[in-house]
Amino acid sequence: MKISANKRILVTGGAGLIGSALIWRLNQMGCDRILVSDHLNLGEKWKNLVPLRYEDYIAGDDLRAKIAAGEDLGQIDLILHMGACSATTEKDSDYLMRNNYQYSQELCRYALKHGAKFVYASSAATYGDGANGMDDAGELEPLRPLNMYGYSKHLFDKWAQREGILDRIVGLKFFNVFGPNENHKGEMRSVVNKAFHQIRETGRVSLFKSHHPDYEDGKQMRDFLYVKDCVEMTLHLASSPLAGGLYNLGSGKAQTWLDLVEAIFAALDMEPNIDFVEMPEHLRGKYQYFTEANVARLEKTGYTAGTRPLKESVRDYVQNYLVADCFLGDGADE
Q1: Is 41 left (phi over 0), alpha (psi -120 to 50) or beta?
Q2: Is the Cα dihedral 87, 90, 95, 100 positive or negative?
Q3: Does 84 count as an annotated binding residue?
Q4: Ligand-binding site membership of 318 (annotated)
Q5: Cα–Cα–Cα angle for 175, 78, 180, nearest 5°?
Q6: How far is the C-alpha of 212 from the C-alpha of 210, rounded, in Å?
Q7: Which residues of the chain fall below pLDDT 70?
Q8: What is the distance between the alpha carbons of residues 203 and 183, in angstroms, rounded to a whole number?
């Protein structure tokens, strides 16, 4: 499906980090026939929407009620389902099952019934500690997520496969996404966001010590993906006739927390000043020491844009958004 100005698009989680970045990029492409859905509640997530153009807004609970009642939402050509509980530390399993599993089922069934392309957020958290690989072409059954968040995402992947529809939809296994429009995420903000504020306040930053014999302090490795690259990959897959199934979305290159933090200090023109602190007990058994996206399946669909270098991405985020205290669409990217 070619994404164009005449297409009408539903973006759930539209005020969140990835959802609002998708709307920002769609606006740049000339698309504003967008129905936004989210749970805005009492926070300031709404601020992410202010610079963006969209047709209408519907609260997440109201959207689910309309779908359950069999109401027609009008022309919907594409559903970008980013709406979910994204807190990896959430302990309310029933809440996660309702929001990440059942909600996804409802929207997926609606999309298939009404001929809309369905693109949804899975997660690299479904891979657990990576002992069974991080291959988006691999078997789902051996995967063992480390937390309930990852398990709720994994269950939907497995449901779609069991129903025989996984190849008709697109699931995105996001790795460590960071960038503008994440201020509302509280403790779930990226290390870039948290470290920037720490450095501004104290001139220093804290990182967790390693509790794994194979990794030195600060040498734990993650695949960091800038949100601007993330949305390019997402919209490529949404428009590609070759896309179907699960796709890793990452840079394809694991880098250390030290690499990340040193890039933040460099963006602020400061010398690194790092303290290593004990990791909380409740996180130690659920901590991923190494993640790296194999993006071969993504590239087979014709994606050739690659990703920005980590230092460049961090510099853009820090200098054009964090220091400027602005949002996507507020000027630095226009």
Answers
A1: left
A2: positive
A3: yes
A4: no
A5: 40
A6: 6
A7: 331-334
A8: 20
Cα–Cα distance for residue pair 171/157, rounded to 1 Å: 8
Residue pair 176/225 in contact (Cβ under 8 Å)? The answer is: yes
* Domains parsed from the chain with CATH numbers: 9-180+223-252+291-308 (3.40.50.720)
Cβ neighbours, 10 Å, residue 56: 12
Q: What is the pLDDT of residue 129?
A: 84
CB of 154 closer than 8 Å to CB of 140: yes
Q: Could you tell me the two tokens for 242?
A: 């070759």
Q: What's the pLDDT score for residue 288?
A: 82
Does 208 appear as a known binding residue? yes
pLDDT of residue 19: 98
Note the pLDDT of residue 282: 82
What six digits make up the tokens of 75?
């022309």
Pairwise CA distance, residues 96 & 149, whole Å: 7
Is 222 annotated for ligand binding?
Answer: yes
Q: Which residues are catalytic?
A: 149, 185
Question: 185 vs 16, 191, 208, CA distance in Å?
Answer: 8, 12, 20
210 is in an annotated binding site: yes
Separation of alpha carbons 329 and 331, rounded Å? 6
Give, as one character, the DSSP assignment of residue 328.
T
How confident is the model over 201-251, as pLDDT tens digits?
Answer: 999 999 999 999 999 999 999 999 999 999 999 999 999 999 999 999 999
257: closest CA among 317, 293, 226, 216? 216
Q: Is the pTM of this model over 0.90?
A: yes
Q: How far apart are CA 237 and CA 83, in angstroms?
A: 18
Identity at 90, one-letter amino acid code: E
Cα separation, 47 vs 152, in Å, equals: 28
Nearest one of 148, 151, 137, 153 to 83, comparing CA atoms: 153
Among residues 215, 204, 211, the alpha carbon closest in space to that of 257 is found at 215
User: What proportions of the chain, in percent to the nearest 5, are helix, strand and coil?
Assistant: 40, 15, 45
